[in-house]
From TrEMBL, chain A:
<dbReference type="InterPro" id="IPR042243">
    <property type="entry name" value="HypD_1"/>
</dbReference>
<keyword id="KW-0479">Metal-binding</keyword>
<protein>
    <recommendedName>
        <fullName>Hydrogenase maturation factor</fullName>
    </recommendedName>
</protein>
<keyword id="KW-0408">Iron</keyword>
<comment type="similarity">
    <text>Belongs to the HypD family.</text>
</comment>
<dbReference type="InterPro" id="IPR042244">
    <property type="entry name" value="HypD_2_sf"/>
</dbReference>
<dbReference type="InterPro" id="IPR002780">
    <property type="entry name" value="Hyd_form_HypD"/>
</dbReference>
<dbReference type="Pfam" id="PF01924">
    <property type="entry name" value="HypD"/>
</dbReference>
Automatic annotation (TrEMBL), chain B:
<dbReference type="InterPro" id="IPR019812">
    <property type="entry name" value="Hydgase_assmbl_chp_CS"/>
</dbReference>
<comment type="similarity">
    <text>Belongs to the HupF/HypC family.</text>
</comment>
<dbReference type="Pfam" id="PF01455">
    <property type="entry name" value="HupF_HypC"/>
</dbReference>
<dbReference type="InterPro" id="IPR001109">
    <property type="entry name" value="Hydrogenase_HupF/HypC"/>
</dbReference>
<protein>
    <submittedName>
        <fullName>HypC/HybG/HupF family hydrogenase formation chaperone</fullName>
    </submittedName>
</protein>
Amino acid sequence: MSVWDGFKDAALGRSLVERIAERLDALGATERQPVRLMEVCGGHTHSIFRYGLATVLPPALEFLHGPGCPVCVLPMGRIDDCVAIAEDPRVIFTTFGDAMRVPGSRKSLMQAKADGADIRMVYSPLDALALARRNPDREVVFFGLGFETTMPSTALTVLRAEAEGIANFSLFSQHVTIIPTLKAVLDTPGLTVDGFIGPGHVSMVIGLRPYRFIAETYRKPFVVAGFEPVDVLQSVWMLLGRIAEGRPVIENQYGRVVPEDGNQRARAAMDAVFEERERCEWRGLGSIDRSGVRIRDRYARFDAERRFSVGGAVVADPQACQCGEVLTGTLKPWQCRLFGNGCSPETPVGALMVSSEGACAAWYQYGGARRGAA
Amino acid sequence: MCLGIPGRITAITDPGAMLATVDVSGIRRTVDVQCVAEPGRPLDDLIGRWALVHVGFAMALVDEEEARATLALLETLGEAEAERDAMRLTADLDRGEAA
C-alpha cells in the first residue's frame, strides 16, 4: 500500500512534495542541517504520522512535534487533585474520556473509578450540566481541559449554569492558552524552529491577530493549517517560501474554517468567565507563566478548586520520563529511554503516550518502521 | 475532542437556549449553536447548514464539501468513531435534555 492511497488528491500531494523539495534545495537545507518546522497542534501530529508525511518529504525537512496536545501536558499534580475531588462521596466527577488514563502520582482517574469513585465519561460539558440537574443532591464537577478550542464550551456551560441557577455544578479548570505556550517554545534555549504550522481550531476561536508577535518579534513565519495531509503539505510549502524570502508573516491556509478575527461570541464567553493564572504547571515543560486560566471571582461558586479543598501540589514528572525533551523536539519519541520500555499506549508513563495526538503514541502506532525517516 | 466533527443542523429545539439538533453521521445530538448564530437573523436559518461541532458546541459553519472531506479525514484518523462513541455514551443524558 502506498502512502498516497490515503490522499483525497494524490496528484496534488505529489506535486506539493516536489515543490517542497525544490524549495528545500534552493534553501540549501540538508539532512544534517534541515529546516525545522514545528506543528503546534496534536491534530497535526496525528495527521503527519497517519499519512506518513515525514516519509514522503525529503530528510532536509524536520517536523518538531509541539506541545499542543492538552491531554499530553497534563501534570500529575492536577490529576491528583481531580482524583481527590472524585473520591469525595458527594461528587459525580465528569471528564472527557481522553483524560481517564493520564497517570497521577497515586492513580489515574480510570484507577480511581475502578476503586469506586463515581467518575463518568461525558461527551460535552453540557452532559455534566444535565447530570447536575438530575442529581440535585450530588455535586457534579466537570474537568475542563484543552486550549482555546474547548475553552469556549466550558465557559458557555458555566454561563448557562448561572443563568439557570444550577448550584451543584462546578468546573475544574485545566485550560491552557496557546500564546504563552508558543512564547515558551520560542524562548527555549537551544531550540531552533524555523517556522510554525499553526493550530487550526484554536485559531478558529482566537483568530490570527494574537500570533503577530511571532513574526514581528521572533521573525518566524506561521501558517494556520487545516488537517488534511494536503493542507499540511501546502502549509509547509508556504512556510518554506516565507523563509526563502526572509519575510516572516502570519498566514491562514485554513480560511474555510478560520476567520481572521476568530469567533467573537466564543472569545467573549472565555473573557467573561476566565482570567489568567500567574503560573501553570505543564507535564514535561515545568511551569509556564500565565499559560493557564482560572475562573474569575464573579463565578467563584462554579469553581471546583474553591469548592473543594484540593492539595494543589506540584508533583514532579517521573524521573525516567523525558517528555520535556520530546515536547521541545530535542529528542525523538523513540529516543526516550522509556519508549516501548515500560511506556506504551496501554501502560503510559508519560502523557505523550496517552493520547493518539501525543507524539509518542503516534510514533508508537505508526512510526515503528520509520525511525530513520523523520 | 480537539478535532471536533462536522454535523448537519436539522432542527432548532430550544431557540431561547440556542440549542439545536445536529445529525452527526446518523447520530442525533443536542448542540449549542450560539457561536454560529448570525446576529439579527432567525436561528431557523441554520437548519440544513453544516457545522463543525466541538464537544457539543457548533463552533464554525462549513460548506457541505468541507464537511464531507473532514468526515472522511476523521474516519481515517479513527477520530470519527471516537467522537460517535462519546456521543452514544451520553445519549441518555442528551435525550433527557431534549425532552
